[in-house]
């Protein structure tokens, strides 16, 4: 019989959330509007006209949610701080009530022996900064560093993440128009990309200067990219796609330069290169202490550069289920960008869940997905990938951006009418993995 995969004793098990997706209370205690409030207000942008106005009401129920985290035995909880709660207009003096909320949260975690991991930006840009150009405006990166400094100084947190998935902001927010701010413009998208990376670097510098001993890094969604067939055209297309999915973010951060082939392609479409000023790449390549890796799906492309799906897809149709991709991307990052420990900051699956008459949520598909991905991660670790921990996306069902509440990624079910939480079978399964440190 195959022996169970055993994880190191100090391996960190956790779960992730993001402010706009769970908190609700979007007008309370001085929170200012964000680009997502604006985006949701436009009919047709979000399925069923949903918004994060109430979400999982975590802003009021955080104590109950902290108890859930403790009951699952988790060692780490990754959440995001809503910039418009801290600076309602994106600059100037902090809003005390906003800071107090996250202080209570961090205190509550400490009382339960759970380590916080805080994301500074999970897409809820203060609307006023958007009105001044948003990420296309270099000044937004400076404002971000100022906001980060407020958070660093106010909150007793060791581990920080700067920008959540800059690629998703660039692609969904600026190229495909499916996320806030809803543009479809390659020329503007890659200018925003440079300023997002600059913001990451500026904030990382601030942390290192003010709080030595703490750690910071980006949270990158990495998509292992493969040719769909064995032709030179498909291999070439996969390499190009890898530039847009992965190297465009990894290279500047780890190597202080943009990938040449990708920058050339971008420069045929717009003025990104004009916005790269002397010294910027030095800022962006400020050494990071930890790399947040988010993995959901691979990308297979054919000889025409079109994405093709070769495996089962999830309810989220962009999500092709391919656990081996997690192994491949971890081994590849370890090889090409060595020296920085990795933490899985997101990995998970949307399933059409429901509560059965006996009160259980039987999400076997999610359990199988998590088991297969943990197994792939374990094999990558055996092959030398330095992975410190794993956070499942997500602790709770939540507002799934343009899909509204129609897609449930939680290991805990949320009834949005009563706000009752029910741990799904996957949560109970995960609790056992966490407790035993073993995959059986
Ligand atoms: C991530 N794609 O978003 C986000 O960080 C979470 O907030 C989100 O809820 C989760 O994944 C599930 O979607 C992504 O199209 C959105 O490849 C889209 C893609 C990937 C990640």
Please, how many helices? 15
**Average pLDDT rating:** 98
- What fraction, in percent, of the residue positions are helical? 40-55%
Estimate the strand proportion: 5-15%
Instruction: Report the uncertain regions.
Output: none
**Biggest β-sheet, characterized?**
8 strands, parallel, barrel
* Structural category: alpha/beta
Cα radius of gyration in angstroms: 21 Å
What is the succession of H and E elements? EEHHHEHHEHHEHHEEHHHEEEHEHEEEHE
Query: Order of strands across the biggest sheet?
Result: 2-3-4-5-6-8-11-12
Bound ligands, each once: 4-nitrophenyl beta-D-glucopyranoside
Intertermini distance: 11 Å
- Overall geometry comes to globular
The total count of strands amounts to: 15
Describe it for me?
This protein has 15 helices and 15 strands. It has helices at residues 19-22, 35-40, 58-71, 83-86, 96-111, 127-131, 138-154, 166-175, 186-210, 232-255, 260-267, 280-284, 324-336, 364-382, 425-436; strands at residues 5-6, 12-16, 76-80, 115-121, 159-164, 215-221, 225-227, 291-294, 299-301, 307-308, 342-346, 387-393, 412-414, 421-423, 438-439. Helix 7 (138-154) runs parallel beside helix 9. The longest helix is centred in the middle third of the chain and has 25 residues, at 186-210. 53% of the residues are buried. The mean pLDDT is 98. The structure holds 4-nitrophenyl beta-D-glucopyranoside (PNW). Keywords: Carbohydrate metabolism, Cellulose degradation, Glycosidase, Hydrolase, Polysaccharide degradation. Residues 232-241 have a biased composition (Basic and acidic residues).
């Amino acid at each position: 019989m195959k022996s169970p995969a055993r994880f190191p004793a100090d391996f960190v098990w956790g779960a992730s959330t993001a402010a706009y997706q769970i908190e609700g209370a979007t007008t309370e205690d001085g929170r200012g509007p964000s680009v997502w409030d604006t985006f949701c207000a436009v009919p047709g942008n979000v399925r069923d006209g949903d918004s994060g106005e109430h979400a999982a009401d975590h802003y009021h129920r955080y104590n109950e949610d902290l108890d859930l985290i403790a009951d699952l035995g988790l060692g780490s909880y990754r959440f995001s701080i809503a910039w418009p709660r801290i600076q309602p207009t994106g600059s100037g003096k902090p809003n005390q009530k906003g800071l107090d909320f996250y202080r209570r949260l961090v205190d509550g975690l400490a009382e339960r022996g759970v380590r916080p991991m805080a994301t500074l930006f999970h897409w809820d840009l203060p609307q006023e900064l958007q009105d001044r150009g948003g990420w296309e405006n270099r000044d937004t990166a400076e404002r971000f560093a100022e906001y980060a400094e407020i958070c660093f100084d106010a909150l007793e947190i060791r581990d920080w993440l700067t920008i959540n998935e800059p690629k998703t902001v660039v692609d969904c927010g600026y190229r495909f128009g499916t996320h806030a701010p809803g543009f479809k413009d390659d020329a503007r998208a890659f200018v925003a990309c440079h300023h997002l990376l600059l913001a990451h670097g500026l904030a990382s510098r601030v942390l290192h200067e003010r709080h030595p001993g703490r750690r910071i890094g980006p949270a990158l969604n990495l998509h292992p990219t493969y040719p769909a067939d064995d032709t030179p055209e498909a291999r070439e297309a996969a390499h190009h796609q890898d530039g847009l999915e992965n190297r465009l973010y990894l290279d500047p951060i780890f190597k202080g330069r943009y990938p040449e082939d990708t920058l050339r392609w971008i420069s045929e479409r717009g003025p990104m290169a004009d916005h790269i000023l002397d010294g910027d790449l030095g800022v962006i390549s400020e050494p990071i202490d930890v790399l947040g890796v988010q993995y959901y799906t691979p990308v297979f492309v054919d000889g025409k550069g079109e994405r093709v799906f070769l495996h089962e897809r999830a309810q989220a149709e962009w999500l092709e289920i391919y656990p081996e991709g997690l192994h491949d991307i971890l081994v590849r990052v370890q090889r090409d960008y060595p020296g920085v420990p990795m933490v899985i900051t997101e990995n998970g699956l949307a399933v059409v869940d429901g509560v059965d008459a006996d009160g259980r949520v039987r999400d076997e598909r999610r359990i199988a997905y998590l088991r297969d991905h943990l197994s792939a991660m374990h094999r990558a670790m055996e092959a030398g990938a330095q992975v410190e921990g794993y956070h499942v996306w997500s602790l709770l069902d939540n507002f799934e951006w343009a899909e509204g509440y129609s897609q449930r990624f939680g290991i805990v079910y949320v009834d949005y009418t009563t706000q009752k939480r029910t741990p799904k079978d996957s949560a109970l399964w995960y609790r056992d993995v966490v407790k035993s440190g073993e995959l059986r």
